[in-house]
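WARN no homologs supplied; continuing
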Amino acid sequence: MKRKESLLVSLAIIILCAAAFGLYQYKSGQASGQRQQPSAAAPATPALPAGTPAAELIVSRDFGRKVLQSKQVQIESGETVMDVLKRSIDGLKTGYGGGFVESIGGLGTTYNPGDSSSKKQDWFYYVNGVMADIGAGEFPVHDGDRITWDFHDWDFSVSSPGLIGVYPQP
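OK structure emitted
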């Protein structure tokens, strides 16, 4: 019995040490302002005047691992997520009457129905870190929203209802 107790105590110490190390790493990353920045190719967007209704538009890949573009965009009353994307991003190609994103900046779907060797990758959108359950052309945008368009693999999972750490800040 003594051996089981010492093993449990040892395991508890290891878990606590790992948690403390993880917390230290997290805090040191926060203190240094460590955050993945948009690529150098992304143009800087001018600051919007104070009080202007705006949303943050992020274009990323692999569940937010790589930010391709990030910008503050002015929004108008009644605009949808798709309206903001079409107005704000160069190199956008849509399909199905403009309601489906085929590619952004040349990065587009790799899935070909009937081809078992094609990768299941596509664009998905999230508002404030949560995957929407309606089309981007129907989802209204509000002041302060964070819209993320992410290109990722959906082979292993049809639904990824949230992006961890996206809201309020990636």
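Confidence is low (pLDDT under 50) at residues 31-44.
OK
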